[in-house]
Amino acid sequence: MKRKQYGYVRPDFLSLVPKDAKKILDVGCEKGLFGKQLKQLNNEIEIIGVEKDEDKYNVATKNLDRVILGDIEEIKLPFKENYFDCIIAGDVLEHLVNPWKTLEHLRYFLKEDGFFISSVPNISHYKVLMKLLRGRWDYTAQGILDKTHLRFFCLDNIKEMFQEARFEIEGIRRNMVSARGLRILNLLLFNRLTEFLTQQYYIIAQKKK
Q: Which positions ≥6 away from 185 have C-beta within 8 Å?
């Protein structure tokens, strides 16, 4: 599920970054592998990461133009208003104490018409709902119920969060994970089960003027 897990960068998430973005902030950059691959596609871009894990930070400094060590909810970013063309927060917002406030804060550093790209797990995925029907809410090492997640969202909650932070959602892509039989059933039901089969949403949002 994670876009950078085990050193693998998801090509579908990579494709969401605007081709004309020159200055990019990667929040929760981990080891900087995502940014490294972006720079391989275009070595003229500037990619700055934010990472709170010191070991990952040390690796990321070798892959990105600059890396800031610290928690995005606590540090002050040393950049001017409208500095970045694109801000990336892959598998980050659900880990924050106050993702709503963080979105508003990061908006300041994004240029007019700049893009905020994020991935957010879907708490209304059918596997979670099936566990709830059995009276279970089991945290796991990774995935939707990752034990390090502090916030949980379904699609309407995600839309509201970005709207409150004055972003316009320009695109939503879905990482659909389900049994083959459910995918067939979804087709027969004219995609009425789509939201329940979506494990993760990819959000492409633009800064409102």
A: 193
pLDDT at 4: 45
pLDDT digits (tens, 9 = 90+) for 41-64: 888 999 999 999 999 999 999 999
Percent pLDDT > 70 in the chain is 96
CA distance 201 to 176: 9
Tens digits of residue pLDDT in 136-169: 999 999 999 999 999 999 999 999 999 999 999 9
**What is the reported pTM?**
0.92
Overall number of domains in the chain: 1
Question: For residue 11, what is the domain's CATH number?
Answer: 3.40.50.150
CA-to-CA distance for 149 and 155, rounded, in angstroms? 17
Assign 3-class secondary structure to 96-111. CCCHHHHHHHHHCCEE
The number of C-alpha atoms within 13 Å of 189 and in the hemisphere containing its C-beta is: 13
Is 80 within a domain?
A: yes
Does any domain span residue 134? no
